[in-house]
Specification:
Blueprint: H1 44-51, H2 58-76, E1 80-85, H3 92-98, E2 102-104, H4 106-110, H5 112-115, E3 121-125, H6 128-137, E4 143-146, H7 154-157, H8 161-175, E5 179-184, H9 189-197, E6 201-203, H10 208-217, E7 221-225, H11 228-238, E8 245-247, H12 259-266, E9 270-272, H13 285-293, E10 297-300, H14 306-309, E11 314-315, H15 318-328, E12 334-338, H16 341-351, E13 357-360, H17 382-393, E14 408-409, E15 416-417, H18 421-443
Parallel strand pairs: 1-2, 1-3, 3-4, 5-6, 5-7, 7-9, 8-9, 10-11, 10-12, 12-13
Antiparallel strand pairs: 14-15
This protein binds iron/sulfur cluster.
The site of iron/sulfur cluster has 12 residues, from α7.
């Protein structure tokens, strides 16, 4: 029997494998309507219908979505896996789970094609690098689609291959096999391929410590791309002293490495690319003090600055934060969470059912950016999901929404640069090496054949 909306629950009531996120009467489905010209041509009629609905409440939106998605699910059938990331705004995460889909963090998303070899079609509502990561591990008869290809990650946008390659050439020229690349999951397939070709690995926020420890044991310098804050936090975790860390700039400037800089890099063990996430860098140590003084436990994501992570009660990946609050802390706990705003809002709604109060860490008096969410991820809204599934049902899925290894999409114009089949195979093969190394280290076993 369904749990009534206002009923309390305990941690044990949340089914394993599900987020515990629920659709509740009267919640707004979408926080911000996108302008019509933000939709690709094929999606505009769906967007017009959506924008003409009376409101964005479940009672209004769900029948409209059902009228398209139910037939699509019936026709496409059990071949389909619907996916979304925890950061998705506009409650689309709840919709994806409602239609039998799954909400996951970037590590679990990346493994979906491997974990479900019997599935043929993966439709993802999240940022582009996450969909591309699935495609890198997908088999030849598995297809990956994204509901909005212009949904990019700002951290990744400052570390495109054409920005990182000049730095890598300079460093490789100087250190040869004495340097490797560790690529955070928030990178394009081309950067993951660079990591694989260098003998390095991919990492996520949940396994970055294990991957960095493995890399250190190789006795080689490490170029960590792209998040400088995660890099610093992991360095502290595995014992790399700050004076053995060299910070490069982000974007095109990162490739500007002159002789003087190289001398400085000679002394470094860890070279950090300078990207950062605008969502996770709004947090300050003062925010931690504010909530702690009021009796709150403080937990944060390791993409937050070191000064914040070092004073928090705990830090960990998206999955860690969700499980920590929903399953581990005692009922009645008060928790300030430092991560993406939509996630905190979803978590707050659900944790209330366990009598746990969740606040956004930056939600302090005068905190102007409190609740800041991942705006680019939120470019996947209900019309995008409806349109893509309806067009796929009809065999008219737009090629722009198909995701293949090595694809680079301009997040502003939507222009996509696609490699030829040989280039795709090369990117996929090298990136797989790096992803499989991560899986091998993380799972403690040999990688599965994919
Ligand atoms: S929250 Fe930040 S790091 Fe995560 S996808 Fe959005 S922009 Fe990228």
């Amino acid at each position: 029997m369904a749990t009534p909306p206002d009923a309390g629950i305990s941690a044990a009531d949340i089914p394993q494998g599900l987020s515990g996120i629920r659709l509740e009467p009267d919640i707004p489905i979408c926080q911000t309507d996108l302008p019509l010209d933000w939709y690709q041509e094929e999606f505009k009629t769906y967007a017009e219908e959506y924008l003409a609905l009376a409101d964005r409440k479940p009672e209004t939106v769900l029948p409209w979505m059902d009228s398209y998605i139910r037939p699509a699910l019936a026709e496409i059938g059990s071949d389909l896996v619907l996916l979304a990331h925890y950061y998705m705004g506009g409650e689309i995460v709840k919709l994806v789970e409602r239609y039998g889909g799954m909400i996951a963090d970037s590590y679990l998303l990346a493994r979906q094609a491997v974990l479900h070899p019997e599935k043929r079609l993966f439709v993802e509502s999240a940022v582009h690098f996450m969909a591309e990561a699935i495609s890198l591990l997908a088999g030849p008869d598995q297809q990956v689609w994204i509901t909005n290809p212009r949904s990019g990650c700002t951290m990744e946008m400052m570390a495109k291959e054409f920005m990182v390659a000049p730095a890598w050439e300079r460093l490789h020229e100087r250190y040869g096999d004495g340097i490797m690349v560790i690529a955070y999951m928030n990178t394009s397939g081309r950067i993951k391929a660079l990591a694989g070709a260098s003998g390095g690995a991919v990492c996520t926020s949940s396994n970055a410590g294990a991957i960095m420890s493995w890399a250190r044991a190789q006795g080689r310098k490490i170029l960590f791309v792209p998040d400088q804050h995660l890099g610093r936090n992991v360095a502290a975790e595995v014992g790399i002293p700050p004076d053995r860390i060299h910070l490069l700039a982000a974007g095109h400037e990162g490739g500007e490495i002159d002789a003087q800089r190289l001398e400085s890099i000679d002394r470094a063990e860890l070279i950090l690319w300078g990207s950062f996430c605008g969502v996770h860098t709004v947090f300050l140590p003062e925010h931690v003090d504010f909530w702690r003084e009021r009796g709150y436990r403080v937990v944060v994501h390791p993409e937050c600055p070191r000064e914040v992570v070092s004073v928090a009660d705990a830090a960990g990946s998206t999955r860690f934060l969700w499980n920590h609050v929903m399953r581990e802390v005692p009922d009645g706990t008060r928790v300030a969470v430092g991560t993406e705003g939509h996630f905190v809002r979803n978590l707050s709604e659900q944790a209330r059912r366990r009598n746990i109060e969740v606040v956004h860490l930056a939600d302090v008096p005068g905190g102007e950016q409190a609740g800041c969410g991942c705006a680019t991820m939120s470019r996947n809204d209900p019309p995008h999901l409806v349109a893509l599934l309806d067009l796929l049902r009809d065999g008219r899925g737009p090629d722009l929404n198909r995701v293949l290894p090595g694809d680079v999409v301009d997040e502003i114009s939507g222009y996509r640069e696609r490699l030829d089949p040989e280039g795709q195979s090369r990117v996929a093969a090298d990136a797989r090496k790096a992803l499989e190394k991560m899986i091998e280290i993380t799972e403690g076993s040999e990688p599965r054949t994919v």
